[in-house]
Amino acid sequence: MKYSEKILNTPSSFIRNILKVTDAPDVISFAGGLPNPISFPIEDLQKSIHCAIEENGAKLFQYSTTEGYLPLRQYIADKYKKDYGLNFNPEDILITTGSQQALQLISQVLVNKGEGIVMEEPGYLGAIQAFTLAEPSFYSVQLKEDGLNVEQLENTLKHNQHIKFIYLVPNFHNPTGITYTKDNREAIYEVIKKYDVVLIEDDPYGELRWSGEKIPYIGAGRLENSVLLGSFSKIVTPGMRIGYMATKNKELMNHVNTAKQATDLHTNIFSQMIIHKYLVNNDLRSHIEKIVQLYKTQAETMLNAIAKYFPTYVNYTKPDGGMFIWVTLPEGTSSLDLFYKAMEEKVAFVPGDPFYTNKSNVNTFRLNYTNTSPEIIEEGIKRLGNILYSLSSE
Ligand code: PMP
């Protein structure tokens, strides 16, 4: 059988593939970006299921609107107002099957084959995968400690007319864990406002902050072509698959709506109604605070263990929130080689390669700390440290 070029050119997710191996009970896995299941509010969700069925009956099981459940869209609009002073109405919100679906829909709507997408380097591999289906040209802009390389962004936009959108994860970035500073965001805004491009700010981790102050978004509320993506995956549960897109651009919203009609008619209404019941009947703030305390302890344990067990030539990020630490080995070291050695010692992480659109055999890798207990984190990092020392003495 002959398959389409676009599927043949789309990489299968390295993480999803290795999760099958790293899921083995004797493997210490820092690989997947899984929220800790002890943070799932199962009892409260159980009550919400009963309550939602009692109140809505057959509506939970019927087809529904493509835009999403109106009370949930209203809740999200109100939350943006409360948290960020942003003036969204329910019609500016589209409920999607995870924010992952929004990535796929937006790229289908905006990009013709060969047109440009600006990605962070390194960037979220699920976005690279979703966008690749639209057969774009990728333009990478480097990430630094304080955010995006603004000069490189400006040069990229100046010299490439066919760029359609810029995709950024400014809070507790996946895979690096970094957060763009306020100054960096301002500088990005000053550049982007001069160009006819869409800015997508993807923010599934923003509420998982344990250090520092919340920082305003780059484009929301002031750039005409601004899109925000959000998700309940990391603050309630990922399996319910409830994410959302927020934009004031009505034309863009209409086209994305059409693409969604064609894709899945609507997001699972059962999940939408349950999550809405959960949100209005519980104190989300205090629930998130518990998750934040959990992840803070895990992150600190991992950072302390890295300081203790890794050779000093290894560089790594120190996140203020979120789920990831990004490790950089000396130039010329392959993190993929390290990965195979680590798997022999039953420790897993994600080698950097799949986070780049055009590089391989890189010297970087991602560690996740949210789904492992502090004792196991210590043991896993110790094993990785031993391997790193043994490599440097080879
Ligand atoms: N964006 C980023 C940056 C992510 O890390 C993830 C999840 N790993 C997603 C989007 C997708 O999240 P979901 O579809 O569960 O909302």
From TrEMBL:
Entry keyword set: Aminotransferase, Pyridoxal phosphate, Transferase
Q: Which cofactor does it need?
A: pyridoxal 5'-phosphate
Gene Ontology terms: biological process: alpha-amino acid metabolic process
- Cross-referenced CDD domains: AAT_like
Pfam families linked: Aminotran_1_2
Q: From the Swiss-Prot or TrEMBL record, what is one GO molecular function term?
A: pyridoxal phosphate binding
Domain Aminotransferase class I/classII large, first and last residues per copy: 55-384
Q: Which InterPro entries match?
A: Aminotransferase_I/II_large, Class-I_PLP-dep_aminotransf, PyrdxlP-dep_Trfase, PyrdxlP-dep_Trfase_major, PyrdxlP-dep_Trfase_small
Q: Which family does it belong to?
A: Belongs to the class-I pyridoxal-phosphate-dependent aminotransferase family.
Q: How does it assemble?
A: Homodimer.
Q: List the protein's name.
A: PLP-dependent aminotransferase family protein
Q: Which organism is it from?
A: Lysinibacillus halotolerans
